[in-house]
Here is the input.
Amino acid sequence: MSGGNEVSVQADITSIPGAALDTVSFTQGLLRAVSADNVNHNAVIQVQAIGACFQCNGPWAAKVPDLLSRTSCVRLERLSSWIGWEKNDVPAFMSRTAGGRSAALLCCALGSLYSSGQCGMALFDIGRDILPLEQQTSSPIQLGDVCMVLESKLGCLGFGNHFGLQVTRLRQCFWDAGLEIPGDLADKPTETDMHAFLIKFRAALLEESLILHYSGTRSSGTFLSLVLAICPEDVLVEVNGGIIMRGCRDNVIFSISSSPNSQAEIQLETKLNPHTADLHKRHIIVESQHEFNRQLNFSFNGMLSSQLDIAFAMAGANPRVSPKLVVANFIASMAMSFEGKDFYRENSSDFFRAQMLPAQGFRTALGPMYRTIIRDRLEKVLCRPADVLQDPATEHRALKNTISAALPFSHCICGICATGDPWNDEKHPKANTIAGKKWKICPVNTLWSTVGYVMHVALLTLFVEASPNSSMRLQPGLFIHRFGDIYCRLLRRDVYQGQFMVDTIHGDILKFLGRWGTILSEAHERQEEEPPIICSSSSTSTIYPSTLAYPTLSNPWVIQYDLVEGRLHHASDCYDFIICAMPGKKEIKNTARSKAKSSIKQGTITQSGLGEHSSLLMTLRPAIIQGRRALVLRCLIRQVNGTINVNFLDIHLGFMSLTPADGCEHNLSTPLVVSDSAYLVKATSVMEPVPAGKYEIGMTLTHRNKESQFLCCAPDITQLYQGDCCMLCAIIQAKREGYKVVIGGLPSAYHVINDGMAYRNAD
Here is the structure.
């Protein structure tokens, strides 16, 4: 083409309408987002349209853009996997528009109160009422998926913590006024009532002439928390006639005061002015669900503090002594003073002892700085314990006295708690009886059960190191009422305490983020056997033992679980669990190591690396097991020409129960002359660390390799770590105290004295 017929390419491009370019950019961003989170693109657009019908302001609204678009990442290099948030996902797409940001806040609140199916139906009903027909393009399931994706990424805001703060403020107002505290402030509204509230809430925000007026107490804490999360500048809150909070505008008014029937009214009112003569009122009697809302998403920081606030608000109790402090004092006192033997009965078998915490209990498990760790981690989730602590029994009595003073037994409606010991499991009725149903809803039993559960979670969090934005939903399970009795029996040491076995502790920590059997209970008549789980991931966070990323044993060691924000990714998909073997005893048995029939070193045994491995290979493969998306971890240990497949969870559980040997004054490199020893000793290796003979003691020759020392750990076997002790003294202690294996290791980098302080040894 030549002359006047030439066409400017640049001119053609610039002549394209800007709206068309915006549409292309919008479509590309949407396709990337739905591809990252595997949700329906029409549902994303519909949720964004619903959000555009609301407005958001306040502190949370200011944080939302950055939180929605963040892309944090923690890599598990050995496993070629990563934990975090994908770039350009659905939340990041929503952060671009005001409607998307408002929708994200709305979904954050709804997702913390209801299940995915309930959220989807709520959004479906809202869209049906406020959106044009052509924008109603998605099913409740599709909308629920989008809602939970948004709620997951905003879980770090901690709606549960926010909820606990608001109900505590309301409860304190009644307490200060000398009035009886209503027990329904924290009730969860039904989906129908929440739908009606949101429709009126939306109308009050859009129309200056309309006011949403709430009066009563029932579910007031829930509704108030939702509104304050979305638009605190539009709220006025009155409690018993006094204003406790006022924003820039009075579009939503809460008039909270107790009434005999404890009903609540939600009215959409029109302001009277010279230009409007009509007053439109609609009254709704709000019913509620008076039980702890298991959908609440808590930020890890302050998690248990908020749950106690909610529990005491639901019981209508306001203690004179802080329940957070007495719980923290009891857990700290127990963790600092209890030894391993305090967690089981006297004269227990070596097999049972091998499944418990080390001989020094938490003092070994949490390392030389255990006092600092205990105080700091309790402060993060609950409350910093007092500087001076009494013995566990005294702190436990103070805890029980605090609860009974806050909610006297005269409030008992079941007749069982009034006996004076609501934690006594032997007095609890069967759940399916008339007495059991009455006992289940008794406010005294409910409060004591929740405090017992908080005690147990507080103990477990001593092992958890959490990233700043991590969050979770607390799932107490079916037997929440048993935890209080477990600790009562622990103090008496009168029964078998399986709750404090290392495999139970490990399982309970992973259940912070989800239970393997949750889906199975809905889909099957009986629950299938659970596989060995090493990592658990929810829609908001992932938790795993630090040994999964760094499988080594440093002396002294610390048992730690890392709670990281974000989902577990492998390749382009997300997964719920990492398991170490397929379900079934046969699969687990295939990864068991054989026992050593002969010694790898005859005669004199010296410190060496003869029993170390040559390489460790860890791989992952995806699988769908019993309806759950899981990654199967294969752990291969090689030594020269031999290879074995081991269960990584077995190694980790053995590590959790490992006890360091007592220090001695001898030269640590002194050889062990087997012929002169009065004990049957075998030199063993990583491949077979446990000797076959019943009365034999294994000494692993792994003194130079920290990874080999960790891989020698085995479950159900009592093991001693040599460390600051010569081989002969370690063998003598092993024989005296019933240890089957001594793991050859390096001396400690610290010296711990009786006051619990740790000092680094000189090189």
Notes: The CA atoms of residues 630 and 696 lie 40 Å apart. Residues 300-500 form one domain. The radius of gyration is 30 Å. The mean pLDDT is 83.
